[in-house]
Each structure stands twice: as C-alpha cells, then as structure tokens.
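Example 9 (inverse folding). The structure is encoded as follows.
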C-alpha cells in the first residue's frame, strides 16, 4: 500500500517561473517510489508569471486540494500594476531610483505582511487541512517556501495533529538578497528571525537546495537538514539548429543588482579589438530585465546587439538554451547569494552548450559548474580571464567547434533527486 504525503505549496501550474517546477517534478516521480502525493494549493492565486504548458506534467491521478486565498498583491495593483508585479517577482529597484509609490509598497510589504503577503491563508488552511488529514490518515506533510508563510501552516498542523512535518526551503528566509530591501523596522526584523527559528526547530526534517543554506541553518537548529538540489528533467524538445550568430543567452530574470558590468566591459572591448566580433555578436535576454541593467548595457554601447525576448514558456526557454552558442548564468555579487543555485543551471548543464557563470567567490554554483565540467565560473573582478574565455569561445564558434563536455550529471536528474526525497518521507 502506498504511503500518502500531503504537499502544501503556493506555486503550481499554470504558474510559470522556476518556483513551480521543483515540486511539480517531485510529484511527477513520487509514485515511482511507492508514495502517493496529495497537493494543496490556493484556488485563486495571483501568479506574476503564467505558463500553461507546465500543466502537461500534472498527472490526472494526482489529488489536488484547493482553498481560496486573499491576495494583497491584487489590491496593490490599484497603486501601481507594474510595481506590484515586479516586487512580487523579487525585482526591486536600487534605493536611489525608487519612486515614492515603490517605497510605500515595500514598507507595507515588509512590515505589515510578515513573513509575506500570503500570511492570511495560514489560519483557513490549518482548519481545512486538519479535517482532511484526520479523515485520510495522512502521516507526512511537506511545506515548501517561499512564500515562507506556508511553513506556518506546517508548524500548526504538526502541533495540533502530531504528523511528521518536512519543511522545504527553495530559497533562504532572512538571508535572501531582497530581504534587506523590504524597509523592515527593528521589530519586524526580529519577528522574521523569530519565525524562521521557530520553523527550523519545529520541523522533523528540513530540506534545502544548497550547501551554503545548510551551513547557515545548522547554526540555528540541530534538526536534520538534507540538501536536495533542483535538477533537470528529460523534456521532449524538437531538434534545434544552433544560432548562426555568436549568441550569449541569459534565461530568467535579471535583477537590478544582477548586473555584471565586468561582462559588459569585456564584450564592449572585444567589439573594438577583435575583427568580425561586432558582426557576429548577439546577446539574448529571455525573461524579465531591470531598467538598471538595460542602462548599463547602453553605457557600454551594447544596445544594438540585444535581443530582448521577454518571458516565454518553459518549453520555449529550453529551445533558446539548446540553440544558443553560450549560456549566461549571472548572480548578485554578495555573500548572501553564495547559496543560491538557480534551477536553470541544471537545464543549462544538459543543453550541451558551454556556460559562463558570474557570481561571488566560493558559491555552490561555482562548485557544481567546475565538478560537472559544464563551463567556467568568474567572480566580478575576473575581467582578464573572463575576456580571454569569451574570445576562446568565439574562436571555437568560428571553427564550428564550440560545445560542452559535461561529466557526472545523472545525480541531478529529477527522478534521482525524487528518490532521495522519498527516503525522507
């Protein structure tokens, strides 16, 4: 007889973006390990991104429970639809460029909605799920955040029903980059820290996506912490032809601070120095991009080389990955991002295209890229080495010999990762 596991998540198809795919794939493969997943989601969520193609991965055999949710971001749209959407995506302007409306919205978000804007879904969810868990004899519940308010559902259900509770952190809580930008009062900051500590010390098992996050949490709790990274799935994508241009493609959002001026300078200098480089270069942005990044590109005279594609479905994003000459992975240059491993990294790794990654020294991404031989990793002060590597890739492209030579990727497959999860359940 299969064991049932109740998964409490905010993001679920038709939501788009990386947040939905982790548990979408776990749910897809858990039945292969004799576990029957039951998924609990909001009935009327406010998703910033929509991708209908992801619904193809939801089995008709999976039980989906839904409960209405009050969404403050819908009200925030009356102030500014654009700012509401960008803040909900985690794209926050630099302080010196923020409008009064954005400052007000950030202050309200940070101090009146702790831990986040979905806090009012906690109480009705606990009431609804308590009855369901007792009726269906559910032994294990799993909460996944962000939004971290979902962990507060877990803490109450465990306390009331004595069920086994696994708390999954796709991102850190108080150490994530945008947390500092929420204009938190001293009291609000303390409340976040208190709630984070309460969750970490109440869950039976904690799951994180990076080793840096595990180290951070280990200083707060003695509860068992398992690292289960994100991964890749075998997607059926029609064969694609490589770009004729020397294309460098970034898939996903480029936040204000995720702005590698060292890369823009290297490209700008190669345009001036290397024959034909200016004719061949193309920079693809597939996803949201902040105005600050666009302005930086303009200052380096790169605007004419940009193809700003915007947000596309997951399947379309995979096509861009496979046909690009080089894939860009860019993270904010700060110690808080050392433990951030973007989900797209694993799809990059199986695309057979070389990766150029930039971020802080000593990050988990740096270790994975080097261990799998899927590309090169640079810090923000590695100008000479970065420029040399791009030039080397360009010469290989001209000789039709540019490719990747990955090793040891199997452990990052979604099915293999689900096997690790099933053992915890």
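The amino acid assigned to each position is listed next.
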């Amino acid at each position: 007889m299969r064991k049932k596991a109740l998964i409490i998540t905010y993001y679920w198809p038709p939501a788009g973006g990386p947040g939905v795919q982790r548990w979408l794939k776990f749910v897809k493969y858990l039945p292969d390990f004799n576990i029957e997943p039951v998924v609990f989601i909001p009935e009327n969520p406010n998703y910033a991104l929509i991708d209908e193609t992801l619904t193809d991965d939801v089995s008709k055999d999976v039980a989906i429970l839904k409960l209405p949710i009050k969404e403050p971001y819908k009200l925030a749209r009356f102030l500014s639809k654009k700012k509401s959407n960008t803040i909900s995506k985690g794209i926050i302007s630099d302080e010196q460029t923020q409008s009064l409306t954005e400052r007000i919205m950030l202050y309200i978000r940070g101090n009146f909605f702790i831990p986040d804007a979905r806090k009012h879904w906690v109480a009705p969810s606990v009431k609804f799920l308590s009855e369901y868990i007792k009726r269906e004899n559910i032994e294990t519940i799993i909460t996944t955040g962000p939004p971290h308010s979902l962990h507060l559902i877990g803490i109450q259900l465990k306390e009331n029903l004595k069920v086994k509770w696994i708390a999954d952190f796709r991102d850190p809580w108080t150490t994530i980059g945008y947390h500092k930008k929420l204009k938190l009062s001293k009291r609000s900051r303390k409340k976040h820290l208190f709630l984070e500590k309460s969750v970490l010390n109440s869950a039976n098992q904690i799951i994180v996506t990076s080793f840096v996050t595990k180290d951070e949490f280990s200083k707060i709790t003695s509860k068992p912490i398992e690292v289960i990274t994100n991964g890749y799935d075998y997607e059926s994508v029609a064969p694609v032809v490589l770009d004729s241009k020397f294309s460098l493609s970034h898939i996903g959002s480029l936040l204000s601070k995720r702005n590698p001026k060292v890369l823009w300078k290297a490209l700008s200098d190669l345009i001036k120095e290397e024959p034909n480089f200016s004719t061949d270069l193309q920079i693809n942005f597939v996803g949201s991009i902040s105005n600050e990044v666009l302005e930086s590109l303009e200052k380096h005279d790169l605007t004419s080389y940009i193809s700003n594609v915007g947000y596309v479905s997951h399947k379309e994003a995979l096509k861009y990955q496979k046909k690009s000459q080089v894939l860009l992975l860019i993270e904010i240059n700060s110690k808080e991002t050392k433990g951030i491993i973007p989900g797209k990294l694993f799809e990059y790794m199986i695309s057979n295209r070389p990766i150029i990654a930039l971020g802080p020294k000593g990050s988990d991404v740096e270790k994975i890229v080097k261990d799998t031989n899927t590309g090169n990793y640079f810090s923000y002060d590695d100008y000479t080495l970065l420029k040399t590597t791009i030039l080397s890739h360009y010469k290989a492209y001209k000789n039709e010999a540019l490719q990747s030579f990955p090793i040891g990727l199997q452990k990052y497959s979604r099915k293999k990762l689900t096997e690790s999860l099933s053992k915890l359940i």
